[in-house]
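Renewal narrative, Specific Aim 1. Our central claim is that a sequence can be written position by position from structural information alone. The example that follows is taken directly from our test logs and has not been curated for this report. It begins with the structure tokens describing the chain, in the order in which they were read.
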């Protein structure tokens, strides 16, 4: 399985999160935002 080296930036992830929480956006917009968040780098403790 190839590792994807490209990650969503913190700035884009923050905006995507706001889209998901805002009821004014379409389902398509929310789907794209969720996809962005799925590509964010997770913090490991």
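The sequence written for that structure reads:
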């Amino acid at each position: 399985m190839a590792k994807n080296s490209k990650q969503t930036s913190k700035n884009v992830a923050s905006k995507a999160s706001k889209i998901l929480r805002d009821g004014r956006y379409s389902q398509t917009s929310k789907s794209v935002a969720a996809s962005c968040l799925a590509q964010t780098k997770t913090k490991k403790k």
